[in-house]
Amino acid sequence: MFIVFSILSHWLIVLALSPLFAGIIAKIKAFFAGKKGPSYFQLYFDLRRLFMKNCVYSRSTTWVFRFAPIVNLAAVLVLSLIIPLGSFKAPVHFSGDILLAAYVLGLARFFMIIAALDTSSSFEGMGASREAFFSCLSEMVLFMNFITLAFLTHSISLSTMIGADIPMSWKMAGTVLLLVVGSLFIVLLTENSRIPVDDPDTHLELTMIHEVMLLDHSGVDLGFMLYASAIKLFIFAGILVPIVYPVQTGIPLLDTLIFLGGMLGLSIVIGVVESTMARLRLNRVRNLLLIAFALAFFGFVVKMWKG
Amino acid sequence: MEKILQFPWQVPFGELSLRLDSLSLIFIVAVFILVLCAGTYAAGYMRQYRGKRPLGLHIFFYLLLSSALVFILLADNVILFLGAWELMTISAYFLIVFQDDDASVRRAGFIYLIASHCGTFLLILMFFLMAHHAGSMDLTLISHAGFSPFLAGIIFLLAIFGFGVKAGFIPIHIWLPHAHPAAPSHVSAVLSGVMIKMGIYGICRVLWTINVLPDWCGYLLLLIGVVSGVMGVLYALGQHELKKLLAYHSIENIGIIAIGLGVGLLGRGHQMPFLAVLGFGGALLHVFNHSIFKGLLFLGAGAVIQKTHTGQMDQMGGLARSMPLVSLLFLVGAMAICGLPLFNGFISEFIIYFGLFQGLFHLPLQGAFACALGIIALALMGSLALACFTKVYGTVFLGEPRHPGIQGGQTPALMLAPMLILGGICLWIGLFPQTMAKMAFSAGAYLSHSQISTLNMGNIFLPLSFIIYGILLFLIVVIFLAGLRWKLLRGLTIPLRETWICAFSQITPKFQYTSSSFARPIVDFFKGILFFKREGGEVKGNFPLKTSMASSVHDAVEEFLIKPMYRRLTVLSKKLDINRIRYTQMYLMYILLYLIFLLAWKLK
Amino acid sequence: MTTWVDTSCIITVFLALIILSNYRVTAMIRIFALQSFVLSLLPFFLHAYSLSGRDIFIVIVTMVLKAALAPSILFWAIRHVSMRSEIKPILGFGSSIILGVILIAGAFWVSSSLKLPGGKPASDLILPCSLSTVLLGFMIMVTRTRAVTQVLGYLILENGIFLFAVSLFDVMPVLIEMGILLDIFVAVFIMAIVVNHINEEFEKDLASVSRSKMGETF
Question: Could you give the ipTM of this predicted complex?
Answer without folding.
Answer: 0.93
